[in-house]
Amino acid sequence: MSEYESIWSDLQGVAFEQGYLDIRGVRTRYLRAGDRAQPTLVLLHGSGGHAEAYVRNIEAHAQHFSTWSIDMLGHGYTDKPGHPLEVAHYVDHLVAFLDLIGVERASLSGESLGGWVAARAAVDHPHRVERLVLNTAGGSQADPEVMARIKRLSMAAAEDPSWQTVQARIKWLMADKSKGYDDIVASRQRVYRQPDFAPAMSDIMALQDPEIRARNILGEAQYGAITAPTLVLWTSDDPTADVSEGRRIASMIPGARFEVMEGCGHWPQYEDPKTFDRIHLDFLLGRTA
Fold first, then answer.
1. Sign of CA dihedral 14, 18, 21, 23
2. Comparing C-alpha atoms, which of 51, 130, 75, 138 is closest to residue 98?
3. CA dihedral 15, 265, 28, 77 (to 10 degrees)
4. CA angle 238, 244, 245 (to 5 degrees)
5. Are strands 230-235 and 16-23 parallel, antiparallel or unpaired?
6. How many beta carbons lie within 10 A of that of residue 136, not counting itself?
7. N or C terminus of the chain: which is more exposed, having fewer CB within 10 Å?
8. Going by C-beta distance under 8 Å and a sequence separation of 6 or more, which residues neighbour residue 142?
9. Quick one: pLDDT at residue 57?
């Protein structure tokens, strides 16, 4: 029997807070740890996700940063705006969040959709981004098969948040399919059981629509405009795209560093937190080239 993995044990002993901020009328949930006098780091989850995507990384990063993991617009326990969500909506919410907490510049690290949003923020608001991490980031391509699978799994879990449907959505993220991921499944199941979450998920899935995705996609011009020091982190078993796509993204960003984590899927920060934290902190702290 494999060792039980608990969200609470990941945070046990960590001086952290969970709370809500009113960001231009949007009640926004966050997890935060670390001295507020330290530089700010914002962690951005993927499509249909929530702040717990980074529970295993908060402790290590809070030693060096005022570390925030937020439920993005329309996600988790943050308010649902009731309209299809495009990348500009997430970026506007993120920038308003930085304004509210009084931070002019922050490092941004995003996984999947979070990486798409972080990259777009770095393009549109370069003066606000100190360093940028794109972790199995979305937004560089439109693979119909991948888009259809994400939408199918996500809508099934939101419309009928049974253990099986939610677990299927979580396991899709992971390289190791032998584990049950019970605690993160239970956490996400509770999120998805909120009243009217299925329509919210439909709004989140807007970026899986080919026409909507096409006008949000990032190409050479956008990636080439990024001026923040950037780490592109990919994995050996990412279900959205193989390593060559991560390398392609890195090649378009001036001076970007590229790293591959072995034996991980779409959530390397969760599957192998020790390796992720080492690579991530080395980059964020400028400890390696």
1. positive
2. 130
3. -100
4. 70
5. unpaired
6. 28
7. N
8. 210, 213, 214, 217
9. 98
pTM of model > 0.85: yes
Residues 6+ apart with CB under 8 A from 158: 48, 192, 197, 198, 200, 201, 202
Q: How far is CA 231 from the centre of its chain?
A: 14
Kindly report the CATH number that applies to the domain delimited by 7-142+217-284: 3.40.50.1820
Task: Please list the rounded mean pLDDT of every run of 10 residues in the chain (289 residues).
Answer: 79 95 98 98 98 98 98 98 98 98 98 98 98 97 92 96 97 95 96 96 96 97 98 97 97 98 98 98 88
Residue type, 59: E
Smallest CA-to-CA distance from 97 within 139, 59, 69 is with 69
